[in-house]
Amino acid sequence: MPSSSDWLGLRGKLCVVTGAGGGMGRAIDASLAEAGARLVLLDREAGLLEVAATEIGRADAPPLAMTCDVADPDSVATAAARSLAAHGPADVLVNNAGLLRPGPLASLSLADWNGLLAINLGGYFLCAQAFGAQMRGAGGGAMVHVASIAASHAQGFSGAYSASKAGVVMLSRQIATEWGPDGIRSNVVSPGMVETPMSAAFYVAPGVRERRSAVVPRGRIGTPQDIADAVLFLASARADYISGDEMVVDGGFTRG
């Protein structure tokens, strides 16, 4: 059990975060850094990665930031190999990279369907495979996969998004089942309505924020930090006996 000075037991642990340059990604990065973790930041946007690494600003343990397309097996393999060579095996993987491409199913092209699944689900699988191999070799680790309440509450006109997030939940359970004997825990954080750069456009119209807040029992829209706090706990030693589970972080919206 971690000491009181390192309550989460993350100090010195190597934590890999995908989609590290996005709104939720940067909150996750910062929270892990504050807990004393060493960081490997992956994102396909070099500019966002630079911002994320600069925000952390830890001179004692600067993050290793690498451009990586999680839908590309070669890109993931290269990132995993570089991370291993630089810092040793990963202790934690946070699968957070994702995108939303709105569109009705009736007219959605197969290319758009496959393109979103390749990132939102295939990318999680590829990263879990690559960094999971390191964890098994080292005797264990923890994986946290960011899904969505859309995994269990269909979000209409969102293309393959809901299907991809439902797949993430089952992928995590399968990882927990197959790799649990190898010491690997796998869990999901499913955000509800959270304002991020990806969702900011939804809140531009007058009254939208107020109407959305009104249907959430907690009385507000979620923040990236709300999600980061849940990720931090599930990644930590304090969640050692939690695996194959889903933590819904939505202010009570789907329970109200």
Give the topology.
Blueprint: E1 14-18, H1 23-34, E2 38-43, H2 46-56, E3 64-67, H3 73-87, E4 92-95, H4 110-138, E5 141-146, H5 161-179, E6 184-191, H6 208-214, H7 224-235, E7 246-249
Parallel strand pairs: 1-2, 1-4, 2-3, 4-5, 5-6, 6-7
How would you describe what is shown here?
This protein is α/β, with parallel strands linked by helices. It is built from seven helices and seven strands. The protein is globular. The longest helix has 29 residues, at 110-138. Helix 1 crosses helix 7, helix 3 (73-87) packs parallel to helix 4 (110-138) and helix 4 (110-138) runs parallel beside helix 5. The model has no long low-confidence stretch (mean pLDDT 96). The protein has a seven-stranded parallel beta sheet with strand order 3-2-1-4-5-6-7, with helices on both faces. It has helices at 23-34, 46-56, 73-87, 110-138, 161-179, 208-214, 224-235, and strands at residues 14-18, 38-43, 64-67, 92-95, 141-146, 184-191, 246-249.
Give me a quick take on this structure.
With 256 residues, this protein is an alpha/beta fold.
